[in-house]
Each structure stands twice: as structure tokens, then as C-alpha cells.
Specification:
By secondary structure, the chain is α+β, with helices and mostly antiparallel strands. It folds into 2 domains: 139 residues, Sandwich (Immunoglobulin-like), CATH 2.60.40; 196 residues, Cupredoxins -  blue copper proteins (Immunoglobulin-like). The chain has 6 helices and 20 strands. The strands form 4 sheets. A 6-stranded mixed beta sheet has the order 10-9-12-17-14-15, with no helix packed on it. Strands 11, 13, 16, 18, 19 and 20 form a 6-stranded mixed beta sheet that branches. Strands 2-1-4-6 form a 4-stranded mixed beta sheet. A hairpin with a 5-residue loop joins strand 18 and strand 19. The longest helix has 20 residues. Bound molecules: copper (II) ion. The site of copper (II) ion has 4 residues, from strand 5. Copper (II) ion (CU) binds next to strand 5.
Length: 368
Amino acid sequence: MDLLRSLRTLAILAVLLYVLLSGGVFAQNGIPGHPLGTSTPDGSFTPRTTRYELTVRDTIVNYTGKARKAFTVNGQMPMPTLTFTEGDTAEIVVHNAMEKEETSLHWHGLILPYELDGVPYLTTAPIKAGETQVYKFPLLQSGTYWYHSHTKLQEQNGMHGALIIHKRHAEPMPEQVLILSEWTDMKPFEVHRRLHSANDWSAIKKHRIRPGTVQSYSDAIKDGALGVKLTNEWKRMNAMDVSDVYYDLLFANGKPVDEAPQFKAGERVRVRLINGGASSYFWITYAGGKMTVVASDGIDVEPVEVDRFIMGIAETYDIMVTIPADSTAYELVATSEDRVRSTSLWLGSGIRQLAAPLQPLKYFAGWR
Ligand SMILES: [Cu+2]
């Protein structure tokens, strides 16, 4: 019995040793049973290596009249959209050109060797100031993904970007990336601190921007719900409780309003939506008719036609929309769940067709 047990222990150790020593194999060859670098059955696919050079710098931005620190990659905020084809190899060279700060890049939703996952001090070494790191991995998936810094709260101040992997034999079609995010003049760590202290600062700011979007005493009295409001106060429930942070701006591709005028009447456009925000859920609405959701977090889904849908933080959705008429730009709107602010992308060019704004939540009737 003892002999058997030690033999079994030896076998387990041998397997563990093999796994440890062959860890790097996956980086070059992909997942066993999923051959990469080979052609598809019709033989028409030649895999390539797609290389990107990314340089991280810190910078000063001014969106509201106040100069604030932010991060750029190749001078851009959000980071540049990285586009690949399934089966290709991604080779991403990341230079940290900052003077003092370290950084990292995490490839959100990608299947890759753990040591390239980009979570500093857990799977990957941080990229120290002045250092360069190379990420090389096979692309086993297709779909809409994104990448972001995984160091401190750099992601909130610009370090988020789209990562698109096209299917191998996809017909080229009109498409558009829309990465959503928020901007606050407050330092992200201060936002974090205030979330712990749960004060009413954000609620007061939100009430000033759009009355009715927080629970106020005057609204409570008007709705005959003073008792509910008082009970909430007694329970130390904050005045918002849908989203707890006040933001100065919401961004569509890094701008308060973005435009995609190249689309023509009758075109079906695939919009690749990414919620790159730090704490906001977004409602998506469109002025040009119904939206058809065709993919979620990079995976194709049974198409669903919707009037609106909500996106959680870090989620991605692909939707198909139609441009109904010429000489018109149709508004695709992302509204924060608390309905305080929105940001838009205009599809097409011409007279602007607005989407109907979402009404404030009925706080004392179950937040509908
Ligand atoms: Cu992520």
C-alpha cells in the first residue's frame, strides 16, 4: 500500500513538473486541440502577426475649465482601437514613457496564457517607468473586447480602449466602435474615498444638473412619500442608490459627442459598444428605429430586437442598426442609469434626428 501511495505521489509530481515546465508552450502554440497558424478547411486563410506599438504617457487635460492629470497611449484618450483577425497572432509592444509611475495593460475577455493577462503582481510584472513589455499571443476568439490599465485607477483617467477581433472570413461591412466612459475632475482615489464615507455630495451635484434624479424632500412631499424618505434617512440610505458617483461628463469615444457621418441611407451598421466606464451602467437608445443585439461580451447571440437595453460596467454588445434616410444624422444615445447625463454618437450626416430622452426614475414608486 505504501509503495502504491508513493508511486501515485510521484506520478502527480511528474505531471505537475511537466505542466510547470511546459507553461510557455501555450504562448506559442495556443490551446491543444485548437491548432493555430494552420489554414481553415478551405485553405484560404494565411495567419499573420499583427503588431502594435503603444506608448503610455501622462498628460494634462482640461474638459471643464480645470486642468487635470490623465493618461494617453500614442497621444490618444481613450487608447487606440486595436484590430485583429481571429487566428492571427497579436504582438503588442508597450512602452511606459512616464517618469515615475508604473502601469500595466489587461486584455479584457481574451483567452491567453495567464502570464500575459496583465494583472500586475498577480500574473504579470508591472511595467515600471521607462520599461517596455511585449505581449505576444494567438487570437483564439473573435468579437468585441477591450483593454485597460490594471494599475491603480489609471483606467478611469484615459487608459481604456477597444480591441476588435474580426472573424476569419467575415465579409467587410459598415461598422463603428463606440466606447463609453465617464469623466470626473475629482481624483479617482478621492471618488473612492467618498464612496466609503457615503456623504450626499454627489446627490447635491446631480440634483443641480437634473432635478428629480435624486431623492429629495420636496419630491417626496409632492409624491406623498415623505414617510418613505424619512425611513430611508433612518436606514442611512443615500439619496441616489442607483449610481453613487457624480460625473462632470460622459464620453462617446473620448468626446462628449461623437460623429460617424460616413454612413448612408439604407445601410445596416454594426455598432460595437463597450462600457469602459468606472461605475456607470448605460441605457442605450437609438433615433433610427429598433436595434438588433447580435453579440454580447464577444460571443454571437440569437439576434434580439430591442427599443433599449442596459449595459453593465465592462460589458460589450454588438448591435445592428439601420440608417433610415439620407441627409439625416440619427442619434445613438448612452444615458447613465441615474438619467443625470448622456453622451451621443451621430450616425449619418444631415439634419439631426434626436432620440427621446429617458425620463427621471420614479424614486418613490420602485425606481421605474
Ligand atoms: Cu477588465
